[in-house]
Design goal:
Elements (H helix, E strand, L loop, with lengths): L8 E5 L7 H9 L2 H4 L3 E6 L1 H9 L8 E4 L10 E5 L14 H19 L5 E4 L4 H4 L9 H8 L6 E6 L2 E5 L9 H4 L2 H17 L7 E5 L14 H15 L3 E6 L1 H6 L8 E4 L2 H11 L5 E5 L4 E5 L16 H23 L3 H11 L10
Parallel strand pairs: 1-2, 1-5, 2-4, 3-4, 5-12, 7-10, 8-9, 8-10
Antiparallel strand pairs: 6-7, 6-11, 11-12
Helix pairs in contact: 8-9
């Protein structure tokens, strides 16, 4: 199948076999309107899909399976079989098997993404505990993708319509956060965030709010020195790199006063500082996006939800939002590349279109 076809191929890694990932995929792609916008390729096995399909009796879900990307059906759900063997599925249980096959699905999907056999990737949730192994020594999708694409740095960016929150640090213990807050780290994340807002979200001159690390953003050095010694100098550095960064703001007052509405994105210093307000205000349709990769990857903003797995109770709105965002960002990137292929030629035509014929006066 030609990678330049109009309807993008979106790969789906299935996540933990005992979580809600498969249910989310079945619910999402049983709606044929979604198939008008993309061609899904689910990296799993027919047996896993059929197991969960039985627990969703009211949903009409059809698919075709293939191991050949040249035989992908454009208007159908495609299952790319990553394994053939019988696998023990126990919904709601944290098992080694659930993690092992989550990694198999993810690795196969990322391989297809690297080889440009798919245009973008949406990852269903994995559990950090049962995916760890000598072969997969990562704390989550984001560091794995950074490694897989040899990216110097990436940014975990949560997005819901015009509300976007990026993180300087991700899955590290609270006791270790401060030592990871450096001028270099903040500037790197701000660079990635600015680039992403321009290329992936179509915002010409993005404005970014930077949060402080300490309560009251340090109260001018009374409650910690990081704001004065690290964060303010990093914001100054950013401005010299044409990044419209402002702050540091006290995190509690910032969100309480809805100041996020005045900015295109917010850069939080650590996981809970950014994700608690985001998940509280995004109302279930937030997504997680890995900015800074050469390819597009999104995911829903929730976990494996073992407590409701296999019970036909999972809400697929965040997963659906992740699919739509993946499609949108692919489109925005193509548009950006198109507009910047020959900027001089484009500028000339725009200037000439608005020009009036010069009036020649006789002397």
């Amino acid at each position: 199948m030609n990678i330049q076809q109009q309807r993008p191929l979106i790969g789906i890694s299935i996540g933990d076999l005992n979580g809600i990932g498969t249910e989310l995929a079945i619910k999402t792609f049983s709606d044929h309107r979604v198939l008008e916008l993309c061609t899904p390729v689910i990296f799993a096995s027919n047996k896993v899909i059929n197991f969960y399909r039985k627990s969703l009796p009211d949903i009409n879900f059809n698919y075709q399976s293939s191991k050949d990307f040249n035989r992908i059906s454009a208007k159908q759900v495609n299952i790319y079989n990553c394994w053939e063997e019988e696998v023990s599925i126990t919904p709601g249980q944290l098992t080694d098997v659930g993690g092992k096959y989550a990694v198999k699905s993810l690795v196969a999907a990322v391989e297809a993404l690297k080889e440009k056999k798919i245009h973008g990737l949406v990852t269903a949730p994995i559990h950090k505990k049962n995916t760890q192994s000598p072969e997969f020594n990562f704390t989550g999708h984001t560091p794995f993708l950074k490694h897989a694409f040899n990216s110097q740095d990436v940014l975990m960016l949560m997005a819901s319509e015009n509300f976007r929150v990026g993180l300087v640090t991700e899955h590290i213990p609270v006791s270790e956060i401060a030592k990871h807050i450096t001028r270099e780290a903040i500037l790197s994340k701000l660079n990635i965030l600015r680039e992403s807002l321009i290329k992936d979200f179509g915002i010409d001159k993005p404005k970014i709010a930077v949060l402080g690390l300490n309560p009251h953003a340090g109260d001018e050095g009374l409650i910690g020195k990081e704001e004065e010694e690290i964060i303010k100098p990093a914001i100054k550095d950013a401005k010299q790199h044409n990044i419209l960064a402002f702050g540091p703001y006290s995190a509690d007052a910032f969100f309480a006063r809805n100041q996020q509405q005045k900015f295109d994105a917010v850069l939080a210093m650590y996981h809970d500082q950014g994700l608690i307000p985001f998940k509280s205000l995004a109302f279930g349709d937030g997504i997680n996006y890995t900015a800074g990769l050469p390819m597009v990857r999104t995911s829903p903003d929730h976990g494996t939800a073992f407590d409701i797995a296999g019970k036909n109770m999972a809400d697929h709105s965040s997963f659906l939002a992740a699919i739509y965002s993946c499609i949108d960002i692919i489109g925005k990137r193509q548009e950006f590349e198109e507009n910047h292929k020959n900027p001089l030629k484009k500028m000339t035509s725009v200037v000439l279109a608005g020009a009036e014929d010069e009036k020649i006066e006789e002397g």
